[in-house]
Specification:
By secondary structure, this protein is of the alpha/beta class. The protein has helices at about 20-35, 55-60, 65-85, 95-110, 135-140, 160-170, 180-190, 220-225, 230, 240-245, 260-270, 305-310, 310-320, 335-365, 375-395, 400-420, 425, 430-450, 455-465; strands spanning about 5, 10, 40-50, 90-95, 115-125, 130-135, 145-155, 175, 195, 200, 210, 215-220, 250-255, 280-285, 285-290, 290, 330. The longest helix has about 30 residues, at about 335-365. The chain binds 5'-O-[(L-methionyl)-sulphamoyl]adenosine.
Length: about 500
C-alpha cells in the first residue's frame, strides 16, 4: 500500500464556481477514488483562498466584514462539491486559525534564516492581479487596474534559490508535468529571478495574515495561499501526520497558476527546508469557442445547471473524457450530448440492458454459470484480465482520459461479442453455451463498472448492485453465478437532440 496525497488549488472565495473549478476538483476526486480502489491510503485536499484585496473590496461593497463575506460565500463551493459527488478528506479555508498560525510560523522561520528583508520599492501594481508588474507587462496592456505605487515592503529572497530550483527540475523529470510546462518553467528560469514582494502595508489593505515581525503589514495573498498545502496536513503542528502525507503526490493546477506553484512555492519550501512536491501537474483550460471560460468574460457554464438537467455522473464522465490532460478543451452542448448518447447510452447503458434483458428472458433473471467455454470468449476474457493493471498504470501516470478510453474499449468489445455470438439464437439449441456467453459479457460489464466507478460513482455502484456484485473487486471471475439480477430502468436514457 502506498500513500496518495492530492490537492486542488484553493479557489478564490469570491468566484462563482464554474466548470473550470469543477473540472480540477472532479479530477482530484477521480484520482483519489482510483487510488483508494487499489488499496492506497489517500488524502484529498481542497479549499478556499479568502484573503487579499479582491475579497476585501467585495466585502466593502456589500457593507459587511471580510470574514462575514467569506462565510456567506463559502457554502456555494461546499454545496457544489456535494452535488458533484466530491469526497474530499479536508476542506481548508485560509481564514482558519489552524492555517494562520502555520503561515506566521513559516514567515518567522524564513525571516530567521535571513531570507526576508525590507526594501523600498516603486513600480506598477496591478490591483486585479494583486502584484507588482514589470514595465513590459504593463505595456502589454493585458493588466487591468494598474497604478503606480511606492512603498516599503518585505521581500523574500527567491533569487537565492534559482539555481537550486533549476537543478531540481533537471534532476526530477516528473516534477513539473506535462513536459511542455516543465520546459516553459525552465525557459522562465533562464532570466535572472527577482525577489518576491511578500507584504502589503495594512494602511493600504489590511485583510490578510499579519507578519509576525512587522505589525504594520499583512502577507501577500499568494504566500498565504500556497501554505495551505502543508498547513492542512499538520506542518509545524502534527509531526506524525505531516510526515505521513508530505511531500504531496500531486498538486493539480490550471496552467494559469504554473509560475506561482513551480517557482514561488518551490523556493518557499527550499527556504523552509521542506521537501518539494513530487509532481505539479498543470492542466489546460476549458474554452468556450476560442476563449477561456471565466467569470470576468461572462461566458461561464454553471456545473449545477448541467447536473440538474443530466445527472452528476455524465457531467463527471464528460469532463474527464473530453479533456486530454495538459491540453485545452472546448466545452460545447453538442459535444456533451454526443458523448452522452454514444458512450453512456449506446455503449455502457446498452450493455447492461442487453445482458439483463437476455438473462431475464433465458435464465429467469439468474446469472448463468460459464460452463461451456469457446475460444471466442478468450478475446473478451484476456482483454478484461489485462485491463485493471493497465488502468492502474495510466492513472499513476495521470492519464485519466486514456484509462477511461481503455475501459470503454472493453465495453465496446463486449457489445460486439454479444452481437457476433448471438446468445438469443444459441439458446435455442445450446443453453449452457448461451449461458457462458452471457456470463462472460456480464462479468466484463461488472469489471468495467468497477473500473469506472471512480468517474461515475453512483451509476457504476448501481450497476454493481443490480449484478449483486457490490463488494466485488478487480479480479476476473468475481461475478457470482445464480444471483438474481435486480430490476432496473435504463441506466442512461438516450437524449433527444431537441431536449437541448
Ligand atoms: N486562489 C488561486 C489559487 C491558489 S492555490 C494556492 C486561484 N484561484 S481561482 O479561483 O482563480 O482558481 C484557479 C483554478 O481554477 C485554476 O488553476 C484551475 O485549476 C481552475 N480553473 C479556473 N478557470 C478555468 C478554466 N476555464 N478551465 C480550467 N480550469 C480553470 O487562482
Amino acid at each position: 500500500m502506498s500513500k496518495f496525497y492530492v490537492t486542488t488549488p484553493i479557489y478564490y472565495v469570491n468566484d462563482k464556481p464554474h466548470i473550470g473549478h469543477a473540472y480540477t476538483t472532479i479530477l482530484a476526486d477521480v484520482l483519489t477514488r482510483y487510488h483508494k480502489a487499489i488499496g492506497d491510503d489517500t488524502f484529498f485536499l481542497t479549499g478556499l483562498d479568502e484573503h487579499g484585496q479582491k475579497v476585501f473590496q467585495a466585502a466593502q461593497k456589500r457593507n459587511v466584514t471580510p470574514l462575514q463575506h467569506c462565510n456567506e460565500m463559502a457554502p456555494r463551493f461546499i454545496e457544489l462539491w456535494k452535488k458533484l459527488g466530491i469526497e474530499y478528506s479536508d476542506f481548508i479555508r485560509t481564514t482558519e486559525d489552524r492555517h494562520i498560525k502555520v503561515v506566521q510560523e513559516a514567515l518567522q522561520k524564513t525571516f530567521d534564516r535571513g531570507d526576508i528583508y525590507a526594501d523600498e520599492y516603486e513600480g506598477w501594481y496591478s490591483v486585479a492581479e494583486e502584484r507588482f508588474i514589470t514595465e513590459t507587462e504593463k505595456d502589454s496592456g493585458q493588466f487591468r487596474d494598474v497604478t503606480r505605487l511606492k512603498e516599503k515592503n518585505w521581500f523574500f529572497k527567491m533569487s537565492k534559490y534559482q539555481q537550486k530550483l533549476i537543478n531540481h527540475i533537471n534532476d526530477n523529470p516528473g516534477f513539473i508535468q506535462p513536459e511542455h510546462r516543465r520546459n516553459e518553467v525552465l525557459g522562465f528560469l533562464k532570466q535572472p529571478l527577482g525577489d518576491l514582494c511578500i507584504s502589503r502595508p495594512k494602511s493600504r489593505m489590511s485583510w490578510g495574515i499579519e507578519l509576525p515581525f512587522d505589525k504594520d503589514y499583512v502577507t501577500y495573498v499568494w504566500y498565504d495561499a500556497l501554505i495551505n498545502y502543508v498547513s492542512a496536513v499538520g506542518c509545524f503542528t502534527d509531526e506524525e501526520k505531516f510526515k505521513k502525507w508530505w511531500p504531496v503526490s500531486v498538486h493539480l493546477i490550471g496552467k494559469d497558476i504554473l509560475t506561482t506553484h513551480s517557482v514561488y512555492w518551490s523556493t518557499m519550501l527550499f527556504s523552509l527546508e521542506l521537501p518539494l512536491p513530487e509532481t505539479i501537474f498543470a492542466h489546460g483550460w476549458w474554452l468556450i469557442g476560442q476563449t477561456k471560460m471565466s467569470k470576468s468574460l461572462g461566458n461561464v457554464v454553471n456545473p449545477l445547471d448541467l447536473v440538474e438537467q443530466y445527472g452528476v455522473d455524465c457531467v463527471r464522465y464528460y469532463l474527464m473524457k473530453e479533456m486530454i490532460l495538459g491540453q485545452d478543451a472546448n466545452f460545447t452542448p453538442e459535444g456533451f450530448i454526443k458523448c452522452y448518447n454514444s458512450d453512456l447510452a449506446n455503449d455502457f447503458g446498452n450493455l447492461l440492458n442487453r445482458v439483463s434483458g437476455l438473462i431475464n428472458r433465458l435464465f429467469d433473471g439468474k446469472i448463468p454459470p460459464a460452463e461451456k467455454k469457446d475460444p471466442a470468449d478468450d478475446i473478451v476474457e484476456q482483454s478484461a484480465k489485462k485491463l485493471p493493471a493497465n488502468v492502474e498504470k495510466l492513472i499513476t501516470e495521470l492519464k485519466v482520459q486514456e484509462a477511461i478510453a481503455a475501459t470503454m474499449d472493453l465495453v465496446r468489445l463486449v457489445n460486439g461479442y454479444i452481437e457476433s455470438q448471438a446468445p438469443w439464437k444459441v439458446a435455442k439449441t445450446d443453453l449452457p453455451r448461451a449461458g457462458t456467453i452471457l456470463y462472460t459479457a456480464t462479468e466484463a460489464l461488472r469489471l468495467a463498472a468497477f473500473l469506472l466507478s471512480a468517474v461515475m460513482p453512483s451509476k457504476c455502484n448501481l450497476v454493481l448492485d443490480i449484478l449483486g456484485a457490490g463488494d466485488s473487486g478487480r479480479r476476473w471471475g468475481e461475478l457470482k453465478r445464480g444471483i438474481k439480477l435486480k430490476t432496473h430502468e435504463a441506466l442512461f436514457p438516450r437524449l433527444e437532440v431537441d431536449k437541448k
